[in-house]
Amino acid sequence: MSNVLVWFHNDLRLGDNPALVKAIESGNKVIPIYIWDENDSDLHTGSAGKWWLHQSLDRLSNRIEELGNKLVLRKGNPKSIIEEFISQNNISKIFMNRRFEPQIIERDEDILSQTDYEITNGNLLFDPEDIRTKQDKQYTVFTPFWRNCKMQTEPHEPLAIPSEIPAPDKFPESLSLDEMGLLPKIKWYETFEKKWRPGEEEANRILVHFLKSEARKYGKQRNIPGVRGTSRLSPYLRFGEISPKTIWHVSKDYSNPGTDHFVREVGWREFSYHLMANFPFLANKPLRENFEQFPWRDSDEDYEAWTKGMTGYPIVDAGMRELYATGWMHNRVRMIVSSFLVKHLLIDWRKGERWFFDTLLDGDFCSNNAGWQWVSGGGADAAPYYRIFNPILQGKKFDTGGRYVRKWVPEIADIPNANLHAPWELSEGQLQLFGVKLGETYPEPIVNHEFARKRALQSFDQITAKK
């Protein structure tokens, strides 16, 4: 009897894992493997995500051992490692779930060309090839895309966790998790440990808890950063510790408008992946060609102020500080801070995309790209460019009581709600009463909102005039 290889990527779970099920059904003995590309050439994991990956691999390894097998860990060039495995371990076939990042596809096609393999759809609700317009074209607007998805044959029920994974007669050598070198030497990630518990079991627990207790209010609370109004399942989806099909089917038992809205957000993730599959150039370029000519500013000083949460706009700074401290940021605030970088500061969206990817625990290549392209105005289903978020009004509307800003920008916590989101409107004497001195204890705004809005619209006029 030969061995087959299950190559894990961003599908670190045992439940609803078609690649794993197919491997077991082949009747051969199974070798599960995870390969860390030391060069990180596929941009598959940012710095924050490496902490999550370390924890997730630990939990997956333990669960595989409970089923009588072992997860082999390797790092290095995936092509060399796979070729070595095929030659030394009597590998007859490779099973894996489909990836959608252009660099990954190119890399894996080269690796798999010399062997028998089977690729399954384990990470999306639908295959991108199946969702087409009536004119047989790719969708670039979400609403009709999602309407089409809901008219398709329903995604299959989640596949059960196997009762056993047939082990090879001899286990290949494996690195220890520490030898993978995923955790940085400076333990800045320790704050994550207090807030997150990676793993498949936790993902399923969070889903059910959310559907039972919070999903009904999702439509009303999802935009309020000061309350826990979202599921926070995004890192678990990003690392494949839960599948979108599991979310789809489990959610059906809790049908209500809030839950439907929640599943629709999973549809936005789906849309992002379909875009990347259909337009692979999106990895580096905007969907709308004229945005390649956008007159971006190159200001390291402004960019650094943004990354550190020191722009002088409280809702922006709160979001950027939450990100660095927790590896996560509320979705409404993500839109505010990204709009601020792109439209107030006129800094290239690709720099923001890269920062998010590196610092978010849920830094997903396709979703992150689509989100930034949407905000920039150059992507699919993008908001009109003239829709420029006013960070003052956004703060007042969605953080009315100031709970969110006061948590993450404590140096201005004593300022009353009426002025909290625009502290510069108070006099120097008034600010002194609240222990604030702009430019010293908290920054002055790095750009005036009205000036920035006018400048952004003028910049947009430059590229529209070139059409």
In short:
This protein has 467 residues and is an alpha/beta fold.
Structural notes for this entry:
With 467 residues, the protein is α/β, with parallel strands linked by helices. It has a 5-stranded parallel β-sheet with strand order 3-2-1-4-5, sandwiched between helices. Helix 2 links the parallel strand 2 and strand 3. Helix 3 packs parallel to helix 4. The termini are far apart.
Pick out its properties.
globular, alpha/beta, 3 domains, 467 residues, Serine Threonine Protein Phosphatase 5, Tetratricopeptide repeat, DNA Cyclobutane Dipyrimidine Photolyase, subunit A, domain 3, five-stranded parallel β-sheet, Rossmann fold, single chain
Q: Which class of secondary structure composition applies to the elements?
A: alpha/beta
Q: Could you say what the CATH architecture of the largest domain is? A: Orthogonal Bundle
State the fourth-level CATH superfamily of the largest domain: DNA Cyclobutane Dipyrimidine Photolyase, subunit A, domain 3
Strand content: 5-15%
Number of strands: 5
State the helix count. Answer: 21
Task: Please write the string of helix (H) and strand (E) elements.
Answer: EHEHEHEHEHHHHHHHHHHHHHHHHH
Write down the CATH class of the largest domain.
Mainly Alpha
What general outline do the C-alpha atoms trace?
A: globular
Instruction: List the uncertain runs.
Output: none
Helicity range: 40-55%
